[in-house]
Amino acid sequence: MNSDPVSDLLTRIRNAGMALHPSVSIPHSRFKEAIARVLKDEGYVAEVAVEGDKLKTLKVGLKYQGRKAVIQGLKQVSTPGLRRYVAGSEAPRVLGGLGVAILSTPKGIMTGSQARRQNVGGEVVCYVW
Hints:
By secondary structure, the protein is α+β, with helices and mostly antiparallel strands. 26% of the residues lie in helices and 34% in strands. The chain is globular. The relative contact order is 0.18.
């Protein structure tokens, strides 16, 4: 069992994308589901579904352009050993706006641009491009 669920989520998505798998199954948590839903809203993954009733799994359908995954890169920013926090106005831009920063804020998981718009700060979870 990985002690860092966000790292596990990002690694599984990255590996499945490189192997051109149509979808990937991940042990469920509400936090991971919220991150996956942001990825879906931003157009990086095709679908997000929760399967099972007792032991839930999160099924993420991946998107491709030809033989290339839509997600070119995933980078975890905040780790269990070193948490990274930003103020609402300082939410980072990824690749000059081409990527997305995912933040965990008091108003829920959201992108960096949504956090800037609502002026809420929080923990920078990861960058996706």
